[in-house]
């Protein structure tokens, strides 16, 4: 299985050293319409249309997505939380799962299970 990871980041304002960030106060550091479009395109597009990409996010990011838009469609949504009984509050259980540890073996097990 081939795994490609996409990570976005920006230089933290006011920092002299190389400090990069992807978030600020639980939000995206930027609000760029084209960047959102690019994210949606890159994460929903697959060469093999029988396959699906996965988006991995923390529990707080999941909760920041309005309920009507989650799980993010046409992607497998993997939510990180240390709460094993966390209620995702969605009926769409086939496109979303919680992961209590970013354990590589567990992550690959989940990725392999959606790589069908
Ligand atoms: N994830 C993305 O795709 C993405 C993309 C762009 C920007 N961002 C930005 O990046 C910032 C951080 O987002 P994030 O998605 O990394 O996290 P987050 O939404 O801030 O969620 C943090 C939560 O994730 C859980 N968590 C963190 N590390 C864990 C671990 N090792 N094992 C199990 N659970 C863990 C914990 O949930 P519990 O408290 O429930 O245990 C923790 O409170 C935000 O500002 C967000 O807007 C994220």
Question: Could you name the key traits of this structure?
Answer:
3 helices; alpha/beta; two-stranded antiparallel sheet; single chain; 116 residues; binds NADP nicotinamide-adenine-dinucleotide phosphate; 5 strands; globular
User: What kind of oligomer do you see?
Assistant: single chain
Helix count?
Answer: 3
Bound molecules: NADP nicotinamide-adenine-dinucleotide phosphate
- Classify the beta-strand content into a percent band: 15-25%
C-alpha geometry:
globular
Sequence of strands across the biggest β-sheet: 3-4-5
Give the helix level as a range of percent.
25-40%
Q: Report the order of strands and helices.
A: EEHEHEEH
Low-confidence stretches: none
> Can you give the mean pLDDT?
83
Helix and strand composition category: alpha/beta
End-to-end separation in angstroms reads 11 Å
Number of DSSP E strands: 5
Give a quick account of the main beta sheet: strands, pairing sense, barrel closure. 3 strands, parallel
Radius of gyration: 15 Å
């Amino acid at each position: 299985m081939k795994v490609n990871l996409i990570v976005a980041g920006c230089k933290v304002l006011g920092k002299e050293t190389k400090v990069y960030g992807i978030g600020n106060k639980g939000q995206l550091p930027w609000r760029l319409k084209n960047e959102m479009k690019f994210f949606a395109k890159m994460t929903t597009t697959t060469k093999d249309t029988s396959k699906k990409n996965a988006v991995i996010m923390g529990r707080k990011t999941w909760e920041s997505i309005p309920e009507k838009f989650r799980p993010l469609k046409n992607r497998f949504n993997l939510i990180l939380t240390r709460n094993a009984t966390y209620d995702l509050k969605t009926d769409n259980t086939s496109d979303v799962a919680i992961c209590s540890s970013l354990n590589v073996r567990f992550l690959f097990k989940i990725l392999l299970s959606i790589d069908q």
